[in-house]
Request: fold
Amino acid sequence: MRERQVARIRRRAREFDAFVAGAAGRLLHAATLLTAEPIDANPRAQRLLVAALARTYAHWDRLRGEDPYDRTRQEIAARFAHDSWRYHRVRGGLLDRLTPQERLILVLRLYEGVAEEQTAALIGLPVDRVRAICARSTAAMRSAPAPAGR
Reply:
C-alpha cells in the first residue's frame, strides 16, 4: 500500500513539474501584463503566479479532464482582481494607463485568447459589458502615445 502511495505522489510531482516547465513562462508573462510591472522587475506577478501554481498543485488530483493551464490562469485572474481593486498603484508600464478591470479583460481576451463568454463568466460581468470594455480599452491603447523611454 505504501509503495503505491509513494509512486502516486512521485507521478503527481512529475506531472506537475512537466506542466510548470511548459506553462510557467506564458503564465508569468500574462501575470506581468496584468500587474503592469516591467518584465525584468515583476515581484507582484511572480507572487501571483506562485500562489496560483500552489493552488493548482493542491487540486492536481481533482483536475482530471480539466485543463491545468486554464485553471491556473483563472486563479491568477481571480487573485489579481481581488488584490488590484484594493491596492491599485501606478507603476508606469504600458498597460498601466488602464484600470485593473480593463487590463484584466484585455489580457484575457487578447493575450490569452479567452472567449468573451468565458471572460464574462470569470469576471462576473455580462458579455456585452466585456465586449464594450475590451473595445474601449483597445481604442485607448491605440490612441495613446507610448510611454517615454520605451
Q: What stands out?
A: The chain has a mean pLDDT of 85. The chain has one domain: 2-143.
